[in-house]
Amino acid sequence: VLIQFLPYGRAHTNPPVTAEPQWDRHGTRELAAVSCFDCHSNLTEWPWYTNVAPMSWLVQRDVDEGRDTMNFSTWDRPQPEADGFFQVIEEGEMPPSTYTLIHPSAGLDDAERKELIDGLRATFQTSPPIPGGGEGEEEGE
Predict the structure, then answer these.
(1) How many angstroms separate the Cα of 110 from the Cα of each of 26, 89, 107, 126?
(2) DSSP 3-state of 130
């Protein structure tokens, strides 16, 4: 019961969307919204359980990490792990099984996975992510 009084994980914010990619088509954005946006955008939906520790801590950590590595809502800023994004989707690491267990609609079947990857590849060609910004880089490099 006492863990409920620890403040981390309850200051849910959705910062402003500063720029999104120029999506190749609406369907790509829709698949990304359902399967990726809760952690990889500033359009996170915060269900009731995100206010209950320790679940709130886990969700906050996942969202913070997701936004730091790739954020579809800040396309005008560096996307540190954009290069590896396709691989984690292809290998089924994204969306993570811990997320799809609670959000079954976010799961991708093989056809949807291929459609998302193809759409993201096309989107990245016309609206490439800004590289860099990863951990260990010094400011100004």
Answers:
(1) 19, 11, 10, 25
(2) strand
DSSP H helical ranges for the chain: 26-35, 37-40, 55-69, 85-90, 97-102, 110-126
Tell me, what's the pLDDT at 47? 92
Location of structure tokens 């959705």: 14
Reported pTM = 0.85
Type of residue found at 116: L
Q: Which residues pair with 130 in a beta bridge?
A: 78
Dist CA 127 CA 73 (whole Å) = 13
Distance CA 121, CA 3 (A): 43
Q: Does residue 61 contact residue 1 with C-beta atoms inside 8 Å? A: no
**pLDDT bracket for residue 51 (50, 70, 90):** confident
Beta bridge partners of 42: none
Tell me, what DSSP letter sits at residue 25? Answer: S
Exposed e or buried b for every residue in 104-129, given b needs 16+ CB within 10 A? eebbbeeeebeebbebbeebbeeeeb
CB 44 within 8 A of CB 12: yes
